[in-house]
Write a structure and sequence with these properties.
mainly alpha
Length: 312
């Protein structure tokens, strides 16, 4: 029996390691986040270890939130025009995914020098992103209103995904804290307006006057339905995509031509649980706790940290 138990344990460990390798590979097409974060010992960063944000963005539900954000962001014609006209996401989807992941990770978990560097990188990338949308309106990625749409949808999507698929839903006070914490990041990018409560945020997105259909939206949604991924990864992505759609308000889902019929949250929930089991919580969260000298919650993390962190 001991041999059987050992064999099962070994097989499960191999599955976990394969999932870690696959997910790490998806996000390895850009700079490594927090590569030098231990150089800033004691620096809590912009938000800090006691924040709700570290918990929310450290959970596997973040993958559903990321897909949801890309879907809903395409509902704004000028924002999606900027992406369609200037982004290389079609030629390099994993590179864009990695760069976005680095930005979210470093602004949330980074020491202040890392937060400031991540924001400046985005500012520089946004400077040349300007033009005219198909409805003949000018756009600029650096404009406060456009930055607000991108930032606020991202915040709302991470929150919605966690409330639906996290280990347990946040209280209303915790949800409001998350929104207010993330607004501090948006302010560094010059985004305006920045709602400070969860209810204000969701209402702002739902009632946004610039939300309307566009050819750019159709093109973006078509790509997101079936991105160029390997068959095994694509099968998992499809579950995440369907779960993300179930969290989008019906009015926006209708605009995006995303029918929820046949899509269930249960498969997405099972996928998130499997990812949580295999990956554990984000190693960036654990690494930042080490940097701050904060307690490490037991049982949350399973991915190895660099030697310099383990020796701390």
């Amino acid at each position: 029996m001991a041999d059987v138990g050992s064999a099962i344990s070994s097989a499960l460990g191999a599955v976990q390691n394969q999932v870690v390798s696959t997910m790490t590979g998806l996000f390895s097409h850009g700079p490594t986040p927090l590569e030098n974060t231990l150089d800033y010992r004691g620096d809590p960063g912009l938000i800090g270890p006691d924040s709700v944000s570290w918990k929310v963005l450290g959970d596997a539900a973040v993958f559903i939130g990321g897909v949801r954000a890309l879907l809903v962001q395409s509902a704004h014609p000028e924002v999606v025009a900027g992406v369609e006209d200037h982004s290389t996401y079609r030629e390099d989807p994993l590179g864009r995914l990695s760069r976005t992941s680095v930005y979210v990770t470093e602004t949330t978990y980074g020491a202040m020098p890392e937060v400031e560097a991540a924001v400046e990188t985005v500012r520089m990338a946004h400077r040349p992103v300007r033009g005219t949308s198909e409805r003949d309106r000018p756009y600029s990625a650096g404009h406060p209103a456009m930055a607000a749409w991108v930032h606020n949808v991202l915040t709302d999507s991470f929150l919605s995904a966690y409330q639906s698929f996290g280990p347990e839903p946040l209280s209303m006070a915790e949800a409001d804290s998350f929104v207010a914490e993330q607004a501090r990041i948006g302010a560094l990018l010059g985004a305006d307006p920045l709602p400070l409560t969860a209810s204000e945020l969701s209402a702002w997105i739902l009632d946004h006057p610039d939300r309307t259909r566009s050819n750019g939206q159709e093109s973006a949604i078509s790509f997101l339905r079936s991105p160029p991924l390997s068959p095994p990864v694509k099968a998992g992505y499809r579950l995440v995509f369907d779960a993300a759609v179930t969290t989008i308000p019906p009015e926006i889902r209708t605009q995006l031509d995303l029918d929820s019929a046949g899509r269930t949250a249960s498969a997405g929930g099972a996928t998130v649980k499997a990812l949580r089991w295999a990956l554990g919580a984000s190693p960036s969260w654990e690494l930042s706790l080490v940097r701050c000298g904060a307690p490490i919650p037991p049982g949350l993390f399973r991915q190895p940290l660099p030697p310099e962190a383990r020796s701390s």
